[in-house]
Structures are given as C-alpha cells and as structure tokens.
Amino acid sequence: MTSAPNTTRATLIGALAVPMWGTLALLTKLAGDIPPLQIEAMAFGTAFLLTCVVWGAKRRNPLPAFRQGLPVWALGIAGLFGYHYLYILAFQSAPAAEVNLINYLWPLLIVLFSALLPGQRLTLPHVAGAALGFAGTWVLIGAGANVSAAYLPGFMAAFGAAITWAAYSVLSRRYGDVPTDVVGGFCLATAVLSGICHLLFETTVVPDATGWLAILAMGMLPVGAAFFVWDHGCKRGDIRTLGAIAYATPLLSTLLLGLAGLAETGPRVWAACALIVGGAVLASGNLLRRRGAAAA
Question: Total domain count for the chain?
C-alpha cells in the first residue's frame, strides 16, 4: 500500500498537469482551422518525439514498459485519441467559452466516478456537487442562454470529451502497476491513428507560423508532459483530490481565452464557471476535510 507521504507527493506531481492544460483551449484556437485529426496527429507526434529526446537523455529503454495487454492499450488510446478528437471538434463547432466550461465538467465527473471505485461510495455532497455542476452547464446552453441550436453538436462533443477523460482517468487506477513510460506509446499510437484517419477523412491544411508554434507548444505541455505527470498522479496519488484541484483549469483556461480576445467572458460565463467550480468543491468537501484533519 502506498504511504501517505508518497500519496501526497504523487498527487502534487499529478497537479502539475493543471496549469499545462489551462493553455490547451488557447492553443487550440490559435491553431486555427486545421482539421481536428490533423491537429491530433501533429501534436501527439511532436509529444512522442520530445519524449524520445527525454528517454535518450536519461538513457532509458521504454520498450519493456510497452509490453502491456490489450486492455491497457485500448484504454490509453481511447482516452487520448477519443478525448482530443471530441475536444478539438467541439472548439471548431461552438463558441469557445461555452465549450471550454462544458468540457471542464470532467474534474467533477472524476469525483463522481471515483465514488464507484472499491472502498468508495456516492454521498450527498457528491450528488449536490453534480447538481451544481450541471446547473452551470444549463446557464451556458439552456433556454435562457440564447445560444443557437446549431451549436448543439459542438456542445455534445464537449460533453462527450468530459465523460471520456473522466472515465480514462478513473479507470487508470486499475492499472496502477503499469509504468508511466507507456504514455509515450499511447502518444505514438494516437499520432499514427489520427494521421491515418486524417488522410482518409480530412483535407490537409498547412499551418501558418502561429499554427506551427501552437502545435509545438501543445506537444510540449498540454499534449505532452501533462499526460505523464497526470498518469503518475492518477495511479499513485489521491484521484479525488486531483479532480478537485483540476477545477483551477477552467478558471485559467477561460481567463487566457478572454485575455487573448478569443472568447466572450461576460457575466453569464463567469456565473456558470462559479457554479461548476462550486460543484466540484462541494463534491470534494468531505475528502478535503479528512485530509486536513489527518494533516493536523
């Protein structure tokens, strides 16, 4: 069993993914009109190449870590490929601020899904937190939000992305003994699969200078290093605490989009953000109180 200090350290390492993911929405918008599968292929290809550089610098052979069963590979590829396809598709199909916050229901869903893990149970704070989170989503896309029905496919894609990433994160606990180096293999498989699908179903768009820089930055941080630290945190840290910490991501992400002038960030958006973040805090309240009591 992992000791408390080691669990805390792993949780802090996993939390490093949060500021990296805070840049993903901005980078996705800066990439422009590049098709979703092409962005995935380029970003994950960049992530894999940079990972190879790290492996080479540390003189580490990752091949033993790749010797995993089909369920591990299926989970990793479905999580990375499926989530990012839906994420990018959503941003290209609906307003950025709304998509951003719907997508960031995944930290709340992690808290809820983790209650189904062995030794855990769903409590009233979990249910109340979920209600607040979905209330925030309704503020964004409900009848009073005056959002066109044409955006519904984008909103559905964003919600699908949230479910996909939450499920991937929680199910990773089942494979706690799998080395984190396998994430590099997930990146390679996702890049190859995305590239094949892109050639079959999309028209290639040559990025401009801004697009190239955005994709390089994706491969370095939100689509690269963030996955390795998150994998470590999910497998060895406190996943429900990570789910709560992750709600700093929509705040940072929405702020960056607003500062860049790429999203409307009026009172409705901030009210929805407050409801969704409040839901996550409420759903994680018992856990955070227990950790505080243990530290005392």
Answer: 1
